[in-house]
């Protein structure tokens, strides 16, 4: 199953999880920015904005930022609580959290559709921030803190560090007498490539979601916020065990 827990996860499973949920976060953040004027998973930005608002006495902006931060934290706490409650389940352990996130995004989409001109509303910011906090905590727990999907600061930092490590490793092999092609081939199948590949997948998926979300919003309506919910429903089905392997097992009868 694609949602198996951290230490048992394979590189392919981590990349699959990263691609799907980072694309969800990218779409929600970008579409939310078009509606709210803020990125709903960037707690650093919200906190900085709160500091600026406190300095200038804009109490409304302080309330808005604080609501988003608390909602993100509440989402993370909800995910952690569900993770504890479902600890004894052998399958569908993560389905409740994914279902809540999909429901919150669906409700936010319906609200945005019926109130297209309200713009920067605290309620919508709270809903989207809660969903992103829940997702970030869920993926952190599933992947054993290997994958984060709602922000890219850490990902880009890791990529910078990993590039230096890769160059050093390739240079060491060349210095030891290996050819450039042999050194690159060794990198391609080594753990260094797994880490770089995972972080590149996260970056690309977030960017893809961040492109598709606004495109859907501009050419359709605020219901584009509901599109990421389709991905979440797919993950719920996999967590329930309803995937290609399951279907194949049912289709193949006894000889």
Describe this structure in words.
With 255 residues, this protein is mostly helical. It has one domain (29-238). The chain is built from 10 helices and no strands. The protein has helices at residues 11-36, 43-56, 59-85, 95-114, 122-142, 153-175, 180-189, 191-219, 227-239, 244-251. Helix 2 packs antiparallel against helix 3, helix 4 (95-114) packs antiparallel against helix 5 and helix 6 (153-175) runs antiparallel to helix 8 (191-219). It is globular and about 65 Å long. The two termini are 26 Å apart. 38% of the residues are buried. Residues 243-255 have low confidence and may be disordered.
General shape: globular
Number of helices: 10
Helix content, binned percent: over 70%
Mean pLDDT, all residues: 79
Question: What is the CA–CA distance across the termini?
Answer: 26 Å
Kindly provide the radius of gyration, computed on alpha-carbon positions and rounded to a whole number of angstroms: 21 Å
The topology string of helices and strands comes to HHHHHHHHHH
Q: Structural class of the helices, strands and pairings?
A: mainly alpha
Low-confidence stretches: 243-255
The major sheet is characterized as: none
Overall number of structural domains? 1
In percent terms, what proportion of residues is strand? under 5%
Beta-strand segment tally: 0
What's this entry about, in short?
By secondary structure, this protein is an all-alpha fold. It is 75% helix and 0% strand. It has one domain.
């Amino acid at each position: 199953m694609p949602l198996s827990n951290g230490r048992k996860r394979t590189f392919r499973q981590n990349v699959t999880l990263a691609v799907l949920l980072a694309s969800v976060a990218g779409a929600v953040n970008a579409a939310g920015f078009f509606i709210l004027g803020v990125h709903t998973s960037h707690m650093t930005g919200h906190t900085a904005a709160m500091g600026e608002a406190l300095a200038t006495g804009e109490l409304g902006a302080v309330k808005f930022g604080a609501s988003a931060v608390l909602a993100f934290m509440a989402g993370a706490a909800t995910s952690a609580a569900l993770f504890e409650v479902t600890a004894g389940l052998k399958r569908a352990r993560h389905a409740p959290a994914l279902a809540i996130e999909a429901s919150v995004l669906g409700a936010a989409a319906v609200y945005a559709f019926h109130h297209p001109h309200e713009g920067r509303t605290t309620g919508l910011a709270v809903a989207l921030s809660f969903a992103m906090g829940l997702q970030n905590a869920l993926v952190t727990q599933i992947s054993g803190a290997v994958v984060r999907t709602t922000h890219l600061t850490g990902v880009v930092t890791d990529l910078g560090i990993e590039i230096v490590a890769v160059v050093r490793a390739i240079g060491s092999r060349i210095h030891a007498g290996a050819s450039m092609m042999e050194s690159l081939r060794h990198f391609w199948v080594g753990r260094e490539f797994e880490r770089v590949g995972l972080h590149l997948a996260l970056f690309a998926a977030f960017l893809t979601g961040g492109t598709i979300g606004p495109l859907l919003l501009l050419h359709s309506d605020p219901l584009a916020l509901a599109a990421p919910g389709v991905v979440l429903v797919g993950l719920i089905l996999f967590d329930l065990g309803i995937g290609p392997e399951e279907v194949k097992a049912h289709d193949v009868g006894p000889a």
